[in-house]
Amino acid sequence: MDQVDIFKALSNKTRLLILKWLKDPALHFPEQERDFSEAGVCVGQIQKKARLTQSTVSEYLSLLQRTGLIESTRIGQWTYYKRNEAAFQLLKEQINKEL
């Protein structure tokens, strides 16, 4: 887990909002075919809520995934995203230890 890359990923307001939305998806997104806790949130719903282009949202999600803060699941033609809570716990522990 590279802290510098993670902090760079967290330095964007929309990426922070996406992480907030994914923390409690039932509060921030309409119901979907797949269960939030199992699959995550469909990328289309994230794009709609963010009100950004598909390419921008995909870039943001890709960056968050590369840092390990979110995970993706591909089901058919759709990709679903959810937070990687273990990564947040590890980051918290590293910050408490080193800073």
From TrEMBL:
It comes from the Bacteria. GO terms for molecular function: DNA binding; DNA-binding transcription factor activity. The lineage of its organism: Bacteria, Pseudomonadati, Bacteroidota, Sphingobacteriia, Sphingobacteriales. Keywords: DNA-binding, Transcription, Transcription regulation. This is Transcriptional regulator, ArsR family. Gene3D superfamilies: Winged helix-like DNA-binding domain superfamily/Winged helix DNA-binding domain. The keyword Nuclease does not apply. Residues 1-99 form the HTH arsR-type domain. The keyword Cytoplasm does not apply. Pfam families: HTH_5 (PF01022).
